[in-house]
Amino acid sequence: MASIAESPENRLQAHTDLLNWVISHGGFLADSVCIAHDDSRGVHMQVKRDWPSPISKDTRVVNTPLGVTMSYFNAIGYSSPKGSFSKHGIELPSSFIDAVGREETTAFFLMGQFLRGQDSFWYPYLRTLPQPGQMTTPLFFEEEDVDWIQGTGIPDASVQRFQTWDQKFDFCMERLEESGFQGLEEYTWDLYLWAWTIITSRAFSAKVLSSAVKQADLPEEGVSVLLPLIDLPNHRPLAKVEWRAGEEDIGMIMLEDISPGEEISNNYGPRNNEQLLMNYGFCISNNPTDYRIVKLGVKSDSPLGQAKARQAMMFPEATKNTDDHYYIFNVFYPLLAPEGPMEHSIISPALFNALTVMEGNDRERRDVDINESGISIMHKYGNGRSTLAALAQVSFELIAHIAMLRSTGEDLPDQPANLKQTFAKIYRDGQSTLDKTALVITSWTLARAREHRRGEGWEDIKALLAEHMSKIPPGYFPDETLSKIRVRILERPSLVPKNGELFRLMELFALLPAELQGPCGTYWAEHIASGPWATDPQVMFSLAISLVAITARSEQTRPMLSSRLTRWVDFLISEYPLDASNDQPESQGQQFLHALSANKERFIHGAAACGVTWLAESTEWMDAQWLQWACTVGDAERVLIPLEPLQVFVEDPAMAKQAALYVPRE
């Protein structure tokens, strides 16, 4: 089929011819509406500029008659008392249709109509579609175009789609060859790729044919319907529109007022830019419904994999939909649940809960709640660690993806060279901004968890937030984006209601009363932090935990301690068995601890000399059993968090991590 010449006049004329063709078969375009063209929007529908008033809500702007729709029902020549659909000259073998199914039948029927050229009933429609050489989805990218999507999720998705379609195409061609189909050589891979791209980018659900097809013959999925003229309007996120299936046609109804000269837009749903580029071949700058899909790669024998298996057994109907809603949202995402914690406004609940299970320790995973709607760790004393660990893991992933986009984009030209690259750049830039704004928010909660000086009052929060936001380089984000980040942080309560639950090593002593901190600090500096083991975090956290735990158990010092500290120590003792036996290979840190225990008397003498009398009098201090217990606690209760997460905004990060011990607030 000859493609439409690229001049705006020819494109507009072809669409005018399409309109006249649709009208001749009983279609309709409202008097207030016209087909127009400009460089930014291409051919589109708009309210006439000279129309005296806005078109109002519930205005029917266009009708497409059932007789000009194209679907599987045309390919099989469907007929019933409710309606009929003509094959219009394409006879696919029934053995082929039975073998390949509804979707492939539709694709080959569209290919056949395209090959008929001007003899096709749908020629006025087909000539307005992007032609095989004009498609802009990633499967049509050249090598130079692919460079613009490196570091994103699209290459893997494109390969997967290519392999799926390639296998289906080969199967279909084999079935056609077996049937002796004439003209088989014209049904090429390139044409098949074009047909499927047209279907994925333009087709509607079979529900639009409900008035003409018996309910028993109308499947819930697997039938795509092309609607000439109705598929002309461009996509606009959040446009308010409805399609209504009538007895003889399908109508497009506007559910909002539209002023003269304004574009009439369709709404493909809350598509992110990755979906738009993959399926439709375009992207939207500052797409409000943009989000990034995260793949966790859950192994079946992992704690989350096992929980998913139990959920499937308990609620088989609820788990038929295998799609995991693992998303990171952009800060302007408008379709959030009306209520919910702040962190879920940037990380989908399903992703966040999955990460808490993955990052939770054995103690927390004993509290996994599996129900029909999802899998999560129950909220109770001590389980906030998994929340902070999940936030830390998201932050690391965001930093890594920001760095990946930066490194894969270093050698790109300053400006795109064609439309494919232009859309790829929009997508790429959107991914980078999404990651960076999400990182500001996830690292905010982690910053609060590291804040031990301030309370949770409004003035405290404002001061801390100002400090956090000051780490963003001036001019890095538009003012509107900075404002939205603040709104996201402040508009909803956090999953972490209290500050100061993560402690670096030396910060643990701040949990002790002032009169105990001095002697402990002196003893620590002179006798603990001066040996060859002092660079091993496992050893040092074990010693600090053991010191604090014995202090909380001492009759001399326990009355002096805060209820927070004593409750935490009592909780740990109840949760972790005091058992020195361990069948696992010893780490270097555990070997250090055994060596220290062998010199127990020296450390007790040092404690007495520094005035840490309750340690000197304790039979538990430097005891092998207690050191092993403290090592187990430290390994389980630590959280690795980014050292300076927002540093990624000014330079490539070294992915520096810092270990912090989780001490819950009451």
TrEMBL record:
Residues of the SET domain: 157-269
GO molecular function per UniProt: protein-lysine N-methyltransferase activity
Gene3D superfamilies: set domain protein methyltransferase, domain 1
SUPFAM superfamilies registered for this protein in UniProt: SET domain
InterPro entries: SET_dom (IPR001214), SET_dom_sf (IPR046341), SETD3_SETD6_MTase (IPR050600)
PANTHER family, per database record: SET DOMAIN PROTEIN (AFU_ORTHOLOGUE AFUA_4G11040), UNCHARACTERIZED PUTATIVE METHYLTRANSFERASE
Record protein name field: SET domain-containing protein
